[in-house]
Description:
Elements: E1 2-7, H1 15-29, E2 33-37, H2 43-47, H3 57-62, H4 68-71, E3 74-76, E4 79-85, E5 110-114, H5 121-129, E6 132-137, H6 141-160, E7 166-172, H7 180-193, H8 207-213, H9 226-240, H10 251-259
Parallel strand pairs: 1-5, 1-6, 2-4, 2-5, 6-7
Antiparallel strand pairs: 3-4
Helix pairs in contact: 1-9
Bound molecules: adenosine-5'-triphosphate (ATP) and magnesium ion.
Amino acid sequence: MTTVAVLSMKGGVGKSTVVLGLASAAWERGLRTLVIDLDPQANASMALDITDPTFTTSDVLADSRPGVAADAVVPSGWGDTVMVIPAERSLEHRNVAEGRNSTLPKSYDLVLIDCPPSLGELTRNALSTADRAIVVTEPTHFALHGATEALEAIDVIAASSNPGLRASCVVVNRFRPDDREHRLNADRLATEHGDLVYDPPIPDCAGIPQSQRAVSPIHSWNSPGSREVSELMDDLLDTLLPPPRPEPRMPHMSLRRYLT
Ligand SMILES: Nc1ncnc2c1ncn2[C@@H]1O[C@H](COP(=O)(O)OP(=O)(O)OP(=O)(O)O)[C@@H](O)[C@H]1O
Ligand SMILES: [Mg+2]
């Protein structure tokens, strides 16, 4: 099971979009996926068609009994390969210390945690549970500063409470190649963080908000650009999952050769 936290210090840069894009890529492959919404705004929950949930991440964080997270899991509107622990507004008052939600159900191929736009307790909680972290940024001056701080927060948690955690990549979202400022900032980011910057960036794509509003995986959304974004999410998912096992060798093949 791979557990991935998606974070940024700055708001509105595309965290939920990356979570939903990866969930969509996993949905298309039929992977057993759990989306944990740790953002009181509950945008990922909404895009997965969860409204008015009975149990939420706020309840899970309030209750330290093992197995409590499993009780809050509900199927998404995309079908029951993509499950959700939804969020609710009261989550913002849930300042729970690190490590509290570390007993996750184990029966998933992929767990995606959508973080709020801050590096506060909720995000630290996600980082203390995850084994991978993706930082999302836009190619703007202030957002880049936030990306560096998010990478530092990952290092702090990895060094203090979760040695299994590592930063997978920094994803640049809403990149417009014709915008000189975007190109300059993307260059700066690459100079500062090298191979950690995921290439290619996610382009501006009208199909992203449209599909989210329609509660649809981007992989089943037919608009200009959405195919490109879906393929990018497929490749990004490949970087997070363990490589496929080699095909088992078939001893009967050599036996047949021996017999003929
Ligand atoms: N590449 C893109 N092209 C077009 N629109 C995008 C793109 N990425 C994100 N958006 C839109 O921008 C808005 C903000 O994106 P998103 O909600 O993913 O950001 P966020 O970082 O999760 O925000 P928050 O910090 O509030 O949680 C959404 O309406 C989303 O549909
Ligand atoms: Mg969000």
